[in-house]
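Troubleshooting log. The previous structure file for this entry was overwritten by mistake, so regenerating from the original sequence record. Sequence copied from the archived sheet and checked twice against the printout by T.R.
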Amino acid sequence: MTADPRPKPLRWLLFATVIALFLGTRTYVLYRLHIPWSDVPLYAEYARDYADAARAGQSFYEFHAQAVRTRLAAQSPALPPEAIHWREHIEYPPLAISWMRFATGLLGRSSSPESFCRSYRFSMALTDMACLIILLWLVRRIHGHEPPIRQAVRMSLFVLWGAILGHLLYDRLDLTLALILLASFALLIAPIHYAWSFLTLALGVGFKLVPTVLAPLWIVASLPGNSLDRPWTRATWFHLSRQVAARILWLTVMIPGCFAPALIRFGAPAMGFARYQMARGIEIESLFASAVFVLRTLGRPFRTIMDIGCIEVNSPAADFFARLSQPLTLLLLAVAFIVFLWRLLALTADNPPAPVASRLAQAYPSLFLKCMIVLLLTFIAACKAFSPQYLLWVVPLMPLVSRDHRLPWLTFALFTVICLLTSLIWPWWFPTHVIGAITIASDAVVCSGPTRRGMLLLIVRNALFGVLILYLLATMARKQATLDSTHP
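Regenerated output below.
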């Protein structure tokens, strides 16, 4: 199907309006928006320690641990030993550390914190612009049949959501991960070999382990367009098994390859980030923490502490949820993927792929995109931590969602409200209604929060987050009259 012919002046006017909105909001975020708490100083610390370790001929991980002990020893009052122990560990994968070194030195090497911050935020602005360009291509590729005004609305939503989350946009790593995910999906539906998309996904895993949950989806998406549209004989099953095995082999080689250089150079400490993440408890903004808040009304108290790089809730129920998190994550991801497979099989039977679709992702991009978003959101919901910047993973993806030839206004409205509530939680209410007063006890750094208002806001935000996942899952499962193919 060809794109709907429309007057080009209108298309260009709408495109120029979106660009103007993007430049205006991002200029404000980059130069005028006050960021009360930023992670960039931590990234700069990693970058400086890496450079100093290289000059001293030492391992970065050993050098950083010693440097942290030296810095914290000078602090007053002294932190508990357990808090110092976890601060010695690197919480990011090696590829993320490499990105910090590149981004903080993009505008030139300097030891001043201001230079580090300026360089990093500038690199993130370029990342944001790359997301906009790829999103524009995807809107034209997937929704080329739509009127220009609808395409402009989709692009404008990306601008809006980024502006709402402006306090996180250029001061976290997560927009870079969003770019990697967006680029990997774009390569998956582009007329090139699927190995490029696999390589990009593997880089995402090396940057942050989250894209691992998308690996099964990528395997199915890269299968030939006619893989599921044929009689199911023994020969068919054998051929399909060979196709799947080849793709598993690609990922099996590519993903470890992203960690190999750091492992060869630094050894086991390069994978210490996995132990760091596994040791975390229930973070205060997570959906599990909201359940702990509700249980307090039934006489089950909890304590809020600062531990392992986040604010945690500590109670017997929280310990149970921490043990439950990993198997529950796998179960929910499996359920979402099974619903997707069921819908895909029904769709290929009712609406066979067009001959021009060389891959299933090219034949049904909207379905694969929606499953991608559902898997990412499900991972966040079942995870022990729900940091506000996690929403950035899906900000460039959500504008591409569609439903029955219409813009999915309910989906867009729900996500907008979630972004607004998240922006209210962080940074405005976080120090007063989420953390509260901080005291250093003998065994932990203890927080007096959250207040009732803080708990209510977190519960409402997380409830809406769960509703959004269920709604997307329901729309993915139902039969839709969809124009679902890419447009050259």
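Residues 8-477 form one domain. Archived copy saved in two places this time.
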